[in-house]
Protein: tripeptidyl-peptidase II
Organism: Lentinula raphanica
Amino acid sequence: MLSQLSVKRVFASFLLSSTVWASTYIVHEKRESTPSGFTLLSSAPDDQMIDMRINLSMGNRSGLEAALEKASSPTSPTFREWLTKEQVENFAAPNTETKEAVAEWLATFNITSTPATPAGDWIKFTIPVGTANRLLKTQFGIYNHTDSGRAYVRTTEYSIPSDLQAHVKAVHPTTSFNGPLKQRSPITAVSVVKSTSLVERRATVPADCNSTIIPSCLQDLYGIPTTLIKSSTKSKIGVAGYTPQNADAADLATFLKEFRPDLPSNLTFTTELYDGATNIQDGTQAGLEANLDTQYTVGLVNGIPTIFEDIGYTTKDGPDDGYLDSINYLISQESPPLVFSTSYGFADESALSLSLTEAYCDAIMQLASRGVSVTFASGDGGVASSPGLSCEDGFPPTWPTCPYATLVGATQNVPEIGASLTAGGFSNYFPQQSWQADAVNAYINKLGDTYAGLYNASGRAYPDVSAQGGTLEIIINGHSDYVGGTSCSSPIFSSVIALLNDELMSAGKSPLGFLNPWLYANPQAFNDITIGNNPGCGTEGFSASEGWDPVTGMGSPNYAAMRTAAGL
Ligand SMILES: *[C@@H]1O[C@H](CO)[C@@H](O)[C@H](O)[C@H]1NC(C)=O
Ligand SMILES: *[C@@H]1O[C@H](CO)[C@@H](O)[C@H](O)[C@H]1NC(C)=O
Ligand SMILES: *[C@@H]1O[C@H](CO)[C@@H](O)[C@H](O)[C@H]1NC(C)=O
Ligand SMILES: *[C@@H]1O[C@H](CO)[C@@H](O)[C@H](O)[C@H]1NC(C)=O
Ligand SMILES: *[C@@H]1O[C@H](CO)[C@@H](O)[C@H](O)[C@H]1NC(C)=O
Ligand SMILES: *[C@@H]1O[C@H](CO)[C@@H](O)[C@H](O)[C@H]1NC(C)=O
Ligand SMILES: *[C@@H]1O[C@H](CO)[C@@H](O)[C@H](O)[C@H]1NC(C)=O
């Protein structure tokens, strides 16, 4: 019986592959050349196993998009009626036709996939490179990521059958040349005082918020409340951490004792580990970024539960794709944290292919639809996005530019000015969004011909908002250190959102959720910052100005005004 079955299957496969698909493959994605930072070492051996994922088209993407627009537009009668997990899954689940078409195609190569998300919009399987080459009519190579020295199996072009084009959103890994996700450099701002003990430093350096930011500076500057939150709060905040960054609980305790002595001394973060992450607790292995992210959330949110979402490198699902895993993990949770802050990124937008970028953005859209505010540090290379990037094709846009994420730029000093390192500009992948059109076009009009051809005036503009990223004091391995960059800005801004969510939900209201349409509709809720510019690519960069600008977005938080704008 068994052998008969397999004979039938092989026969059916043969039929399908020869009559339906064999001659109709067309190119799905292509890169002109190997991206900089990678070199081709050799073709990948046929018997090397590769973990592949295919992202299927959502059954009803336009339905989800429309539902999110209704929930997030301040003028909508159903404003902030976020969707349930089930509602989102109903939109996201691929339709039967899509699932069957893809399953049949894979079956012709004897491939069985398993769902990787509850909605089944993302499937995965492990196959030899030889099979992957035939499946995608390509030749996978081994590429050296010269920064990390790690080997990646990738290709510059692949094809799929023409009648599957509409069903398949992205195939990964293929043409996305992403190295490991890197933290936005928390630039060590004042290296001379590094490693000075706390006591010594306090004797010699008086608190001065213009030169050094500590939590009380932010509380004063933005009007952030200091009252301990009730333990019954429904607000939660998540911060991403990527290996090898470890968030140190002992350093957090030292930080709180020093800067928030008013809070219970046992406040800490909880940790969710995935993809082999460990979050080693050893002061000498504490990470600047991870300590910054946990200290400037727990240190500001007054007891709101804070989750360190710690993502490892090597996964059974593929190398260095933790960013996909983390978003899918949050999507699969019944009650994900309502704010999720990430201070890591790829160097620029073009590191990931358009289709993978869209698929990732769709995942963020699903979270946003459920009332999660997804925030990212905008990047630290000014108009060049990341320090050291090439500007051959104009100002390279940052990663991610997904319109469903809120990008946070940096300010410095008191009174605040735009920080020169802030990545700000315009996407080449996503168009300008309707909720930002007025604010952004007003800026573009002021700009006139300046930088014409160097930026994409029809692209999604960023950052959306900003917060301090000048010189922040953190504790690392028991000592003070000083860091700056948009890495600081995202957790600070996100903490403000978590506090507002607590107030809203305590009052029986919905959380803020997908922020962008609301932010742009409420300019009065932010401190408009009109001084500063973000040089890069051999230019002075963009200048801050009245209203939205590509250095400080709509401005920095004004807690009282945001509270009012939120309906409290
Ligand atoms: C998609 O969702 C919208 C909004 O709920 C609905 O009107 C439409 O019929 C749905 N389309 C499909 C193909 O299910
Ligand atoms: C197909 O998969 C089955 C189960 O894994 C395996 O036993 C069989 O050898 C495979 N056949 C081919 C032609 O690869
Ligand atoms: C990968 O690149 C790094 C840096 O250029 C180099 O040191 C290493 O030898 C390369 N690895 C291989 C296998 O070529
Ligand atoms: C704040 O610091 C900057 C340099 O970091 C300095 O130029 C400015 O004058 C200072 N402002 C005040 C009010 O001290
Ligand atoms: C922290 O201490 C307080 C008492 O000061 C106690 O009520 C609370 O349960 C403790 N929390 C944790 C997480 O241990
Ligand atoms: C896969 O694509 C669908 C849309 O086609 C999206 O809803 C989903 O979130 C994507 N998954 C990932 C992990 O990007
Ligand atoms: C500019 O942005 C638009 C809208 O997203 C896009 O269609 C276009 O391809 C972009 N132009 C370039 C040169 O990337």
In short: Confidence is low (pLDDT under 50) at residues 1-23, 187-207. Residues 210-211, 413 surround 2-acetamido-2-deoxy-beta-D-glucopyranose (ligand 4) (CB under 6 Å). The CA atoms of residues 26 and 159 lie 5 Å apart. The chain has 15 helices and 26 strands.
